[in-house]
Fold each of these.
Amino acid sequence: MSRLQYFWNRLFKMDWKAMWKTTGLLKKRSGKSRVWLLCDMLKCAVKYNAGYVDYKIAQMYKLNDEQRKTVITRGISNDIVRRMNPKEYWHFFDDKTEFNQTFAQWIPRKWLRIDDKTDPEALFELCRRNQALLGKPLEGSSGVGILKYEAEAWQAGPEAFLQRLRQEGIGILEELVVQHPQMASLCPTSVNTCRIATLMGDKQEGIVYAFLRIGNGKVMDNVDCGGMAARIDIPTGRLLTVGADKQGNTFIKHPMTNTSIIGFQIPFWEEAKAMCLEAAKVIPQMRFIAWDVAITEDGPTFIEGNSFPSHAIPQFAAHYPDGIGILPEFEKFIDL
């Protein structure tokens, strides 16, 4: 799809009310007029395939044309995914039970598919072993529909609990992942996961980027649920940047725990990288995968893999203080 075609498709699907609200926010932040911002957004949409959310997150109003060329906008990200990941193979990652089966050697937790064929006795056995369980829709992203169930939820018996799970749209029920104490020191309310993206490119193969997603009081660490992210130094596993959320707020220390973010060392980092690189070869047709990795006391484990990686976190302005975005990293792997 050409840039002009992408622009017209997005134009017709635009949430104009949200865009107007965004320009109001950016008017306060930038000191520029709404007319200037709208004209500049239009320029970035045509020239860089940038939507208004891209424009806000990457703070493109601060960047010159050379810097803007280095931002991974939605249009560019979508094109990379289309090139690297044939849609007929997405199901290995989009169906959470299929993902758990395919990558079982790196997922030690117990889980159960919830559907019309679920055995109440198997559900009872899973419940009996745990004080809490996590329920997820079979497909979905950004933490939508994920619910935590405490032991009282199944006190009425497995049949009643099974009916509740179906009513609430749960497709898979899993044991909770207990994160490493060092990871919990950042934020104990959520499992803080590493987003590690592997890219099997024509120029080279390996890890193209890595970020730590950090919760901020909720069960989920997703940035769409109010969490933050910090960039990981791939060779060392240390956090290179402040934490930043989708609203543009930045944090040197976590606001709940006062733990310093810059310089934080992720445990089992070498093992986490090796796991992702090995897993990337399991479905070789899928060449660009963003893996969500939890770090436990026993080492890394997968939470999920993303067949259509979000481009939001890799373009947060706070992670690129010199204005040079992440596209140069992609260009080491593939031609853009």
Note: The first strand starts at residue 111 and ends at 113.
Amino acid sequence: MNLSTHDPADLDFSPAQMRVMGEATLARIVAHLAALPTAPSCGDLSDSEALCRSLREPVPEHGSDLQTLLDPLFADWIGRSFGTTGPGYMAYIPGGGVFPAALASFIADAANRYTGIWQAAPALVQLEANTLDWLRGWMQFPDSARGLYTPGGSMAMFNAIATAREKLLGTDIRVGTLYVSSQTHHCIAKAAKLAGIAHDRVRVIAVDAHYRMRVDALAAAIAADRAAGLRPFMVFSTAGTTNTGAVDPIDAIADLAAREGLWHHVDGAYGGFFHMVPELRPLLAGLPRADSLTLDPHKGMFLPYGTGALLVRDGQALRALHSSSAGYLPDNQDEFYDPAQYGPDLSRGYPGLRVWLAIKMIGAARYRAALAEKRELALWAAQELARTPGFVIDAMPQLSLLAFHLESPALATLDAQNAATRALMQAVTARGQVMLTGAQVGEQFLGRICVLSFRTRRAHVETCVQQLREEAAALLAGH
């Protein structure tokens, strides 16, 4: 396919050329997705350093044929990575990648409409506003709530902290203190620093035996800071921690935050979307009371990585932080959602289309069914492992994540248990059908299973449990 042109300043392609390129790319993508059921759960990462060194190159002076670029991408490079889109990926918190979202990203990038302000693309921005309203409804937030899409949970946290800081501290930032649990995602401390809340003003609160924030310890920390002349202003609950899937006592923390005048943020990046399933809402009791909420549609809605979201109960507080004007911009208006008035970006992509097209094509009912299934699969796996010799379940699934470790008379010390549990994760992953990861929680290393890929079904979880049993028996027999 010759893409050369006689005019070096002409960067466009003919309709025929674009069709050929599009069909070639689509053929590769469809073949890649069709092969996922038998693809390795984790690609070969043994020579990653050498691979990356070999890929360093100077800027090309002249263009290349698309096929010569697609060949190594799909034959080699994409495969040398975690198999995040495969059904056996039960590590970390799985991402998604439903196909309608890929179509939406292609449309958004090709049409390339400006969506920073409503007036530039009214219909397109309204579609994005619709999706934020759908999220608001699923989370039972009030009509006053507003939100924005972000690249992920980290930027959602940053905007939430900045909004709370602006409303409750104003310019007197240094006196403000913020509260997280020892199991809180690490991005919050980073986001706090970016928002002007230094590390010495972030308080880490102890957790209970189920890895949930202790409300009594939180109350004591708040009282101590007030006595020291500081100003407690924000507390974070987690709706599903990364390490163990623990759900903090959100309702009780909301009560304390209300009494103390603190902004209460719920990190629902992993678990928030389970709230869209009515029968699962009791697991997340108190979530609708949050002042702000992080959601990751690239987790619970199975969308591509790079799709995060923030909802703020008091939409005007979010707007007060971000609203601005300039002589070259239209006057601010109040009736329609204006992305630039609720977030930091003026020039931005169009993330709302991937959310809109996925929901429109799949429908809320199928989303609810998929989420309910993932929790049932995690519960089944936990029950099966709990009756397997050598396994101790440290955290039963509150949502769809469970944590465990190996224990037996042959593993006489904590170090031996940790080493065996770590080896178990590696042994199962090395088989190539299931990828698992663990987490260091205090002195204990825990194995984890997180069921959240939309492609993970009962047969895949059965394979996971069977391989865990086989590899654990072999490890314990060797001690």
Note: The first strand starts at residue 146 and ends at 150.
Amino acid sequence: MKILHYALGFPPYRTGGLTKFCIDLLKQQNQNGHQTALVWPGRIDFLGRKVSIKSRKLCGIQSFEICNPLPVPYDEGIAQCSFFTENAKEEPYERLLKSFCPDVIHIHTLMGMHSSFLEAARKRKIRCVFTAHDYFPVCPKVVMVCQGRLCLSAKSCSDCGECNKTALPIHQIKILQSVLYRAVKDMPVVYKLRKIHRDGYLGKDMANRNIRVSGMAEDYRKLREYYHSLLKKMDKIHYNSTLTKSVYEKYFQLPNSEVISISHGDIRDCRKKKKFSSERLRLSYLGPQGEAKGFFLLQAALDEWWKTNKQFCLNVYFTPIKPSPYMRPYGRYTYADLETIFDNTDLVIVPSVWQETFGYIVLEALSCGVPVLLSGNVGAKDILAPGAGIVIEDLTAEKLCRVLKNITSEQLAAMNNVILEKQEILTLNQMAEFIETRCYCCKSL
């Protein structure tokens, strides 16, 4: 089978769970005997706007770079909606599909994609599958969080202009999609500037900044309907959790779908018997510093607990803007570091405020035998064996503080035993086979 994936690109230029999922799945499919390639939104020229597609090998993978795609806003939001719905001629895409002849096109995001790509695929009767990694088709900010809490006006889009007022202007997005930026992205000075920007962007005071509102509610309703029209062209929607499915179905009618939990190529079954001390609780938070992931909620809960109990620490893997005394900051980690991190962790906390579609860190922790404490907004709760962790619905700082106060070393040991005896650890190959048989509708090799 020939499978053409559409995603944001290759590491290190593109990072995150979506990129990890796509590249690892693509490589696994190659190992399973399929022929795969990745088409991705590349550079935007400042002068010419003609769409072309460049073919070459990247990271050992057949790559098709779209030159002059639509802008990619990532999670920064959209201020000028009209730029994100422009179309292009079908000829470049027709040539791509004629040369590669895919049996399936697996789409991982709608960012940067011209509708003419899907139109060319439909003309050739190529099966199209969409994996919902986030809520971009519903929310330009991806996470459906407004001013630190779940967006309550998503249906009407009445707050979208206010929420997206910090979106990057088109000329800055073009810079970020330039060949020059790819070359300098990880240089120390550029990395520092990126960090300053992200710290400010994710900071709690961002919504209060005096920035002009970006657009009208009607603009965002039209944008959502445009994305709905693209999703309706898919033959199958793959949801990575029941939570993701429930959120999408509030806004879109997409009847042909499958819920399949996900994995990645660095998941190994490293479960082990752990010892837990009653003297000091070692907590770990492996997300970024931001409201959507629940870091500030977690900090508020632990600040309160610290007033009466000094027998815990929190490992974080960034430099907090305002660190609390119980925090142990570490640098950025890699997948190779995870086993060591989890050896020094008693409980992983995933306190997401946004309705996180999955949450790889849950599977990663369980694969090392570490109990987890989750917000009910984490899609990965689907995979949690009963007794392997704690799920707190409608999470607040007060609820989290109460639960943590009552956790004992005996309870943690019991959770560890459940993980060892009953927790399923989904491998990448198993996931790939599920997707092939249930989404691509082909027989497993």
Note: The chain has two domains: 2-265+430-438, 281-425.
